[in-house]
Amino acid sequence: MSDEKLDYAQQRWAKDFEELDRQIGEMALICQVQLLDPGVIERVLKNDRLVCGTDNPEAFEKMRSLLMLHYKMRDMAVVRFGEADTLRIQDEIIKRLRERFGDDLGRSPA
Question: For the whole prediction, is pTM greater than 0.70?
């Protein structure tokens, strides 16, 4: 999916999601968290710092807060655009983040 297939409002949301998820990815790299491995996001949201490969409480807390914000934004996007369009937006963002970070954030479930 390219940005041309998104209307203006969807493009704005996609840009906001991409920036937020980029910051989450950077914090995950600092904390050495394999964020995309199964169950890791849930553990971060439950404040389980044992998922970290290095101790950096400030970066972990920022990553956790950004993840909570991501889910709140996602819920808002579903209300505005519907589940299918929100998933398309997020799939494109994940693709671009995967290009940027590679497997440094772990492997998403197949």
Answer: yes
